[in-house]
């Protein structure tokens, strides 16, 4: 998670250090958690019931789950199964590094702008403590909306994870030339997902630090306080954005020549899978939230000042 509450009167690291530190954190996070992301995306993209099917044994359900997650590697040895969870790694690297740099560097800029130009308005509208958390949340939401610019990399990553057939015989530049603006398919749903999701992420973390730990200066949070506030913000974000994330994923995983609208997908999900389908893939995401956020947050906080010292 992007560091929340860096607006105090402390030394501010250089832009170069922020880019290097957040980018390095993103790369290490990618190699550690990309397999879990692949599992979540494949579960979200699956349109058939796995468990609770009449006259289907538990063994058959487990076999179906194995097939959904590992696909053609379902019957292969364990190592081959694990390696099959790394499709689209190149696209994922581009997306993750760009996203981390954008979030780590962008949210503080948006926050500082709002604080300088509209800080008193937030205080008058929500009070001192509420206004502080709302300002952090709003800055996060604005940055989340802007993430739509990175959508093509996200689309290519997800398609490689869930629909590799779309890449048969075509390289990156060929796909970009052929598809053009089609790579922004699902942009509207991405904005609808990111706005409340990023609001909950940054606002939830700030709220935990403000109300659970009573921190006046978020930078003075201990390791465990950062841990719990990150978990609180991320769980809130993932839960709030889950339905839109499923819809966005299904839009993006369709073949390039066979698009389907978000409203059509919603109707089919309700009719064929029920309302619980809007939260498919949420469990593996939640299960990895804790270690992922502690991992990313700790590395970012260590790498950024380390690179700053090296540069000076």
How does this model look, in words?
The protein has 11 helices and no strands. α4 (89-126) packs across α6. It starts with 14 loop residues before the first helix and ends with a helix. By secondary structure, the protein is an all-alpha fold. Helices cover 72% and strands 0% of the residues. The chain is globular, with a radius of gyration of 21 Å. The protein has helices at residues 15-45, 58-70, 78-83, 89-126, 128-146, 151-162, 172-179, 187-212, 223-253, 262-273, 282-311.
Order of helical and strand elements: HHHHHHHHHHH
Please tally the helical runs, counting DSSP H or I stretches of 4 or more residues.
11
Provide the residue-averaged pLDDT.
81
Helix content: over 70%
Q: How much of the residues is beta strand, in percent?
A: under 5%
The chain-level structural class is mainly alpha
Q: Overall 3D geometry?
A: globular
The radius of gyration is: 21 Å
Segments where pLDDT lies below 50 for 5+ residues?
1-10
Number of extended strands = 0
End-to-end span in angstroms?
A: 26 Å
What kind of sheet is the major sheet? none
Keywords:
single chain, 312 residues, disordered N terminus, 72% helix
Task: Detail the topology: elements first, then pairings.
Blueprint: H1 15-45, H2 58-70, H3 78-83, H4 89-126, H5 128-146, H6 151-162, H7 172-179, H8 187-212, H9 223-253, H10 262-273, H11 282-311
Structure, briefly:
By secondary structure, this protein is mainly α. It has eleven helices and no strands.
């Amino acid at each position: 998670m992007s560091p929340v509450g860096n607006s105090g009167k402390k030394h501010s690291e250089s832009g170069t250090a922020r880019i290097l530190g957040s980018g390095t954190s993103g790369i290490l996070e990618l190699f550690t958690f990309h397999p879990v992301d692949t599992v979540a995306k494949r579960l979200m993209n699956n349109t058939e019931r796995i468990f609770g099917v009449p006259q289907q044994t538990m063994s058959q359900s487990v076999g179906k789950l194995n097939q959904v997650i590992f696909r053609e590697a379902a019957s292969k040895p364990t190592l081959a199964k694990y390696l099959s969870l790394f499709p689209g790694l190149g696209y994922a690297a581009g997306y993750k590094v760009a996203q981390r740099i954008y979030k780590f560097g962008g949210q503080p800029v948006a926050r500082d702008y709002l604080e300088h130009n509209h800080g008193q308005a937030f205080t008058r509208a929500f009070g001192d403590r509420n206004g502080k958390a709302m300002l952090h949340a709003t800055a996060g939401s604005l940055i989340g909306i802007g993430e739509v610019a990175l959508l093509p990399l996200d689309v290519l990553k997800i398609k490689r994870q869930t629909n590799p057939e779309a890449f048969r015989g075509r390289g990156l530049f060929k796909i970009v030339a052929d598809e053009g603006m089609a790579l922004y398919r699902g942009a509207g749903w991405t904005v609808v997902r990111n706005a409340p999701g990023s609001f909950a992420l940054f606002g939830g973390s700030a709220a935990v630090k403000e109300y659970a730990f009573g921190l006046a200066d978020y930078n003075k949070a201990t390791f465990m306080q950062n841990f719990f506030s990150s978990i609180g913000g991320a769980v809130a974000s993932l839960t709030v954005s889950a339905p839109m994330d499923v819809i966005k994923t299904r839009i993006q995983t369709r073949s390039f020549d066979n698009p389907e609208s978000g409203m059509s997908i919603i109707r089919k999900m309700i009719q064929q899978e029920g309302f619980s389908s809007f939260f498919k893939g949420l469990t593996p995401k939640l299960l990895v939230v804790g270690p992922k956020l502690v991992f990313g947050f700790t590395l970012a906080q260590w790498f950024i000042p380390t690179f700053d010292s090296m540069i000076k």
